[in-house]
Amino acid sequence: MYKPANISSYDVIRTIKRSFGKKLGKIGHFGTLDPFACGVLLVGVGGAARLNEYIHEMPKTYLAVGKLGEETETGDFTAPVSQKDTSPYLDQTIAKMDVEFIQKQLQDKFLGDYYQAPHKYSAAKHQGKKLLEWAREGVDIKKEKKLRHIYELEVVSYDFPLLTIRVKVSSGTYIRTLFSECANHLGTIGSLVSLEREAVGHHHIKESIQQNNWPNGQDWDYHGFGLRPEQTLLLPKVIFAPKESKLVANGVQLKLDRALECEDSESLLYWAYSADDKLLGLIKKIDGEWRVQVNFS
Q1: Which residues, at least 6 apart from 38, have a Cβ–Cβ distance to it below 8 Å?
Q2: pTM beyond cutoff 0.70
Q3: Which of 9, 103, 182, 282 could form a disulfide with 294 if both were Cys (CB 3.0 to 4.6 A apart)?
Q4: How far apart are CA 77 and CA 162, in angstroms?
Q5: Does an H or E element contain 202, and which?
Q6: Is a pLDDT exceeding 80 seen at residue 261?
Q7: Residue 180: is its pLDDT beyond 80?
Q8: Which helix (H) or strand (E) holds 183?
Q9: HEC profile for 205-255?
Q10: Is 45's pLDDT higher than 90?
Q11: What is the pLDDT of residues 202-253, one digit of tens each?
């Protein structure tokens, strides 16, 4: 789905539920987008909703437009400016930097492993409550930095004070925090003007369902719009004979040699199929056995 700005990720789910009620079973999204952000939101329907922990780990690509020299409490301009950089260095030096220089500075600093703490106005939780809820109550929760990874960082354009970057990052990376730290590295402060998630894994924004094609209370061809689970998680395939397929369907652990066919791969996770090409679920190699992780039967 393409989530527009100024609605929550759950508003998207609520729209689907209003149209279908319990007809589709469980519905959930994989990876929250902040209300001010827009872009790709993967939604799981029925059994696919149980794939959250696996799909959530896919890298994500964002296009972020930020403003240098101004900072807000939330890291974006849904809140008033709380601090301004009035130093001569901002106008005399940073304003005159070119795209190539900024890109090299940011790539040298941030590409690769990157430790980051979640923004205080984020959906990360402390004692079961979101940090943003604590912050709105005037409580500033400091979380430990966690290892993230920046796969790609490109400076798309620079028209001072607006800096536009495209980043491909590991799951759990907060772009508001990353942009703020990019601004700090250049010698100033900054907050996001806009944020668009362009891709989740190999699922690109151009393939997402625009709002005019969302369900509207009438029949909606979710099969036509949707993807099968194996099109989302690109994993090797293991096939089981009828007897073993029934055991897999019941969640029974099997020795590795009980598979009828298995694609050669170093992956631990596989899609399990019956001999008649029915998708049984997600299965994992653990200690010489096949162990069912998600069962679709």
Answers
A1: 2, 3, 4, 5, 194, 195, 196, 197
A2: yes
A3: 282
A4: 13
A5: none
A6: yes
A7: yes
A8: helix 175-186
A9: HHHCCCHHHCCCCCCCCHHHHCCCHHHHCCCCEEEECHHHHHHHHCCCCEE
A10: no
A11: 999 999 999 888 877 666 666 777 888 999 999 999 999 999 999 999 999 9
Contact indicator for 95, 188 with CB cutoff of 8 Å: no
Pick one of 3.30.160.40, 3.30.365.10, 2.60.40.1640, 2.30.130.10 as the CATH number of 235-295: 2.30.130.10
**Three-state DSSP class for 86?**
coil
For residue 264, indicate whether it is catalytic: no
The confidence score (pLDDT) of residue 150 equals 98
Count of beta carbons in the 10 Å neighbourhood of residue 104: 11
- List the catalytic residue out of 11, 34, 85, 98: 34
Amino acid 22: pLDDT: 73
In this structure, the number of other CB atoms found within 10 A of the CB of residue 21 comes to 8
Structural tokens at position 227: 């993807």
Q: Which residue has the tokens 């240098």?
A: 68
pLDDT at 51 exceeding the cut of 70: yes
Distance CA 240, CA 256 (A): 11
Q: Domain spans of the chain? A: 2-57+204-230, 60-200, 235-295
Domain 60-200 maps to which CATH number in 3.40.1280.10, 3.40.640.10, 3.40.50.720, 3.30.2350.10? 3.30.2350.10
Of the ranges 59-68, 143-152, 159-168, which one carries the lowest mean pLDDT score?
Answer: 143-152
Residue in this structure with the two tokens 């959530």, named with its chain if needed? 56
Position 137 pLDDT exceeds 80: no
Residues with Cβ within 8 Å of residue 165, at least 6 apart in sequence: 63, 64, 66, 106, 153, 154, 155, 156, 179, 182
The overall average pLDDT reported for the chain is: 90
CB 73 within 8 A of CB 188: no
Question: What is the number of H-type helices and E-type strands within the chain?
Answer: 9, 20
The answer to whether residues 193 and 79 touch, using CB atoms and an 8 Å cutoff, is: no
Do 60-200 and 235-295 fold alike per CATH? no
